[in-house]
Amino acid sequence: MDPRLRARQQQSVAVPPPPPPPPVEPSPMGMDGTNDAHAESNKVPDDKFKLKFCTVCASNQNRSMEAHLQLASAHLPTISFGTGSLVRLPGPSIDKPNVYHFNSTTYRSIHDELAGQNTALYTHNGLLNMLGRNLNIKGFPERFQDWVPGRPRLEHAEDKGFAGTESGVTDVIITCEERCFDAVLEDLHNKGGKMNRPVHVFNVDIKDNHEEALVGGKAILDLGLSLNKAAGEEREAFGESGWNQGGGAARSGFDERVPEILASWQDRWPSMPALWSLAWV
Amino acid sequence: MNAQTLQQLESARSLALGDGSYYPTIIPGVLPIIEYSPENQSIELQRWGADFIAEAFASPTWPPDAKENVASSVLPTLKGFLEYVEDKSVIKSVVQAAASVYPLVYRHTISHPHDARDWEIMSAIKANILRRMDTAAPGIRICCIKFLQRVVLVQTPGIVDPRRPDHSDISLALVSRDHPIIPYASLEAEGHGLLDRLLDIIHGDHSDGLVITATLNSLGMLIHRRPIAANKILSSLFKFNPLKLGNAPMTSKNKVVIKSIERTTRALMMNIMKRNPENQINGRIQQYLEHMHRGRVELFDESSRKRPAPAEPTDGLDQAKRQRVAAQAPISAPTVHPLPPGPVSWRQLYTLDPNGSTVNFDVQAFKDPEQLLRILVPVLQSVDAQKLDHAINIVRSRYLSLSHAAKQAAAQSATGPAAEDEEEYEPDFEPEDAEQIVNRLDGLPATDHPYQSGPPTALAPYKLPEAPPLSEQEVQKYGDQTVYRAFGMLSSVDENQKTKITKSGFNRLAATDYGRDAWITILSRLATRANAGLDDPDEGIKDEYAVKRAKGSLSISEAVRDGLYDYIIHDWKRRIDVAISWLNEEWYNDQILAQSSKSTKNGVNGHTSSDTTGNYQRCALRMFDGILGFVEHTDKILLRFLSEIPALDHEILSRLKTMAKDPERIDLACTSLQYLYMFRPPVRTMVVDTLADMWQENDRAKPSAGKLLRKWRPEVLGEERSTTPAVKSEGDGQLAKESANGALEVKAAS
């Protein structure tokens, strides 16, 4: 049990719990053992308030999916997207990438196709391993620009981290490189913020390889948990007693604490330059 | 009970998530459970409810038309939450919901101009949210910002392209100009005002980055959807400095915030450019982005360049910098030169550095004050406050010591040096430095305190020397000239107006325009009434006054009367109407005076004045005499004059006898009398008397006069019948003819 969470567990006696989300299926084992062990220790209890997360990279394959897995494993509601025009995966040579359409090509079909093409190559470069992980997380890569905020995602009920995302909204978007961050902000301008709902958009710069993605996933989970903790504190700091009990940072709201949280996160993860913006979905 | 209720609510919600068309049926059922009431203060229910309303109205799964129908039902709930619930997450969700509902209620009100109730509640909600704008917690403020953006969006006119009508775009263009509940103009004004408020935010405090990025991210859609507001937003953005926080200590939080604001600005600008690649303003945006990029590189490169000295803490660098700045101020202090002994000029007082390069700068080089303003204002803004204070203190101390010295000097009554001062004083304003300008401006009020006798007088307003008093003759001369000029103007107006004479009948009031008649009215009243009360009552009493008037004719009335007389005589046939209206004014004035003097004098001491002669008779006689010199036997205009002047007496009519001495004008005289007899009955006896006199005194007039007298007063004729039978019999025949139809006869006789 995280000592930070333990403190909250005790507090929750005084404060009635927020609405419980629908029951979550027990999370199946991920591809990576260490990964699961890490997530296990950070699991957020289901009776706690949870922010809704969204991870974004270029192709919704490597970095965003690793982060998706880690956040979902911590029982945080998560969806994920790619901002590229097409799903691009390394091919037999640098000038022959494997290209797929978003939203329709499933991870399984990509996995099977690549396995049929050259099992040795794609096993060696880790693509099959990655796709195997991905097809256990959700059905197919989704494109951020095609996402309609607020459209219910009931058909994604089998996805990991589905619980809490059924209404198709998100509180936090985490991108994995600046190009994606810019694309997300721009696309949100185009979407026009029709829901009038604030969303914190973060960028965590992660190099696009399996090792970095793993480390980046941990960093994103760290960020996610820190944010979720602050948001939970805001919910709990209600009423005369709650308001007066919370001291210092806990007393100010979640949103204004975000820069501080990000700054202290940046100190913990100095190799991943971070950006942030408050945007609208 | 709560848990159970929440479970039920949650299942209702999943139903609606499954199919958006259930919302209209679910919302009415949910509202009574979640809304605030003294009984229901469960924070969970309220949070759930606020979230649900926000979610429902933001959902794309049911159409806006259906939402519009349900929108009014949730307004009281939202209002209740805003007024009674303090919880942050409830308020956040409520403001979000309000932002979604506002356009719906707005459109509803547009199409239902008589449904004021919903709009009232919505306005109350809006007012509540706008009140929170500046004071609420940042988490709520950002939602208020989004609400503001929505309001601005619907209250500015959208693009109305008939080829592509966008029915989903709710904008000011939908509002009719004469809407009874939401007047177009006030909506528009409010929209502009709120946009200004929105734009003000980004120029404010950057320290949290939250509201700044929230605002920037809400502007993109406004620029895209409201081209009318785009220029305003862009020009505000060009003034926006994303690296404002660069001056603050470079903590890791500030670093993150600066980078984030910069990046957000960039994303916004890129979006604007991509949306409209042909936009002319894109060059400007590019420029702005480059500038911003350079600024950022400088800001962060500086710290990276200093990284090689790892022993030094990051913050220490900044402090060292700041210390140096602080240390500089005292260094500049000793450079101030002391004032020279003895009296000094203003310029010397304010000159802190007489050797500075700006000493010889001549401000008069700026012919255009606008240009000077453009330079001066930024200079003033960039003045370092510390330096300024220091400079002010120097000047202040100089001033104080000088005023002490001046007091001492005054005690010794030394006035000599002041004159010297004046010679030294240069009125040219020569600012030496930005500080000098400010110093001078600050010093200006001090000039109120007199401490130097010399220079201030030169700055005093210049007064023209007083003219020598006019002599009585001069006064009269200039007065006459004024009157003369007035009539000169009148005759010029006369010529212009002759062509277009409009008769406005009863609508004609005195002096309603600048035409001839108006001036005539003014002048004649000036002549008659200007000093009426002063002149006439005293006439009989103060002899010396009368003498004086006769001698010098100082009275302005007389001058004007002379003017009028000359004016009429100059072209009497055409200006006979002027004569008549003037004489009417004279007569009227006489009547008024007679009445008032009668009443006052009777009342006060019972002294009844002998009937006042007044001015009328005098003027009328003068006028008539003047005219008579020019009258020819064909001038029937004389009839008009006689019949229209307000009063006739024996003396005036006797002038006709004089006229009749000219054989040519006998007929005219008789015709005039005949006319008066027929159309002015009150003067009949006078007319007949005059005629009788004429008949008796003037032999040549006898035939004409006899004809008339035969009818009106035959007894006069009787006296003479024996002496002139021949003439009489001739007249008889004519008279018989005339008696049949007098009026026609008058015509024939002319």
Automatic annotation (TrEMBL), chain A:
GO terms for cellular component: mRNA cleavage and polyadenylation specificity factor complex. The keyword Ribosomal protein does not apply. It is found in: Nucleus. It is an enzyme of class 3 (hydrolase). Residues 1-44 are annotated as: Disordered. GO terms for biological process: mRNA 3'-end processing. Its main location: nucleus. InterPro entries: RNA_pol_II_suA (IPR006811). Keywords: Hydrolase, mRNA processing, Nucleus, Protein phosphatase. Residues 35-44 have a biased composition (Basic and acidic residues). Its EC number is 3.1.3.16. Residues 15-26 have a biased composition (Pro residues). It catalyses: O-phospho-L-seryl-[protein] + H2O = L-seryl-[protein] + phosphate; O-phospho-L-threonyl-[protein] + H2O = L-threonyl-[protein] + phosphate. One of its GO terms (molecular function) is RNA polymerase II CTD heptapeptide repeat phosphatase activity. The keyword Lipid biosynthesis does not apply. It comes from the Eukaryota. Component of the cleavage and polyadenylation factor (CPF) complex. Component of the cleavage and polyadenylation factor (CPF) complex, which plays a key role in polyadenylation-dependent pre-mRNA 3'-end formation and cooperates with cleavage factors including the CFIA complex and NAB4/CFIB. SSU72 is required for 3'-end formation of snoRNAs. Belongs to the SSU72 phosphatase family. This is RNA polymerase II subunit A C-terminal domain phosphatase SSU72.
TrEMBL record, chain B:
Residues 300-320, 411-431, 718-750 are annotated as: Disordered. Residues 419-431 have a biased composition (Acidic residues). Residues 87-306 form the Symplekin/Pta1 N-terminal domain. InterPro entries: ARM-like (IPR011989), ARM-type_fold (IPR016024), Symplekin/Pta1 (IPR021850), Symplekin/Pta1_N (IPR032460). GO terms for cellular component: mRNA cleavage and polyadenylation specificity factor complex. It comes from the Eukaryota. It is found in: Nucleus. It holds the Pfam family SYMPK_PTA1_N. One of its GO terms (biological process) is mRNA processing. Its main location: nucleus. Keywords: mRNA processing, Nucleus. PANTHER family: SYMPLEKIN, SYMPLEKIN-RELATED. This is Symplekin/Pta1 N-terminal domain-containing protein. It comes from Ophiobolus disseminans.
